[in-house]
Model the fold of this input.
Amino acid sequence: MTQDLTNTGFPNSTDQETRRVHVREVGPRDGFQNEPETISTDDKVRLINSLGRAGFKRIEVASFVRPDVIPQLSDGVEVLHRIDVPADVERMVLIPNSKGLDNALKERAYFEDATLFVSASQTHNKRNINRTVEETMADVAAMGPRIVAEDLKFCAVIATSFGCPFEGKVEMDRVLDLAEQFAEAGATEIGFGDTTGMCNPAYSSRFFAAAVQRLPGIEVTAHFHNTRGQGLANAYAALEAGCTSFESSFGELGGCPVPAGSTGNIATEDLVSMFHEMGVDTGLDLGRIIESAREAQSVLGRKLTSHSIIAGPVLWSQAV
Ligand code: ZN
Done:
């Protein structure tokens, strides 16, 4: 990914040039993993295929974490084999460690993007993957060249970038230092996760302005949770600070299982609705995203909480 989308004249743009952003759908991994129900393989395949027709260029579709740790995603390989998305949709998989990478590379033909992750806070990383941050980053340094050699896109996610449920405040410099380590290992995209919804719009603005400046040539991605109701405001602040890449989950599915009970990716349909109303182009078909979210609702057999599922989209832009 290049920086072409950051050259659109903002922050503080006053021209009428259409602003463009990328929105990546992470529901089939981040969402399905963290819902209490186990979703059947048939339903996963159908929902991913439906999302593939909504215009996403990248969808996170599977994970190579151990099946005994995340049983909801134990059918990841079958999902990869069976989904049928347009050729220009990059299929993204989450990889926890070198063993996971070994397993993923056996399926090399079935995905284009590999995501590695760490938590910025030591306690969260230990609870999540039972390793220290330093151990994880040593593994990242070993995995990075293997991913690059396979001609895969190497993406990174830094969880608890905006606060940790166990340690509280996480220093910006610590997070951006980890981001630079990922970049040195070969990552071309780095996402910052607000894993338990601790960011606020003022901090989002400062953080993303600094991240874009410190990571030249890297696609900087915002991954907000709506745990405390500030997800869309944080996304707007990130946009105005120069971030043009976002992750979200259709139907507001998922969130993070640590600590227990924590939920809340921002809903893709709400994020996309906000962008479209502001005149920011996503290249996405909002109606189809809402259809997919409603389908997920019927698969799960309960109401989902995104606003756009309930209210429907606003069909005009009030941008100018
Ligand atoms: Zn998330």
Summary: Residues 232 and 274 are 8 Å apart (CA to CA). The first strand starts at residue 19 and ends at 20. Confidence is low (pLDDT under 50) at residues 1-15. The chain has one domain: 11-311.
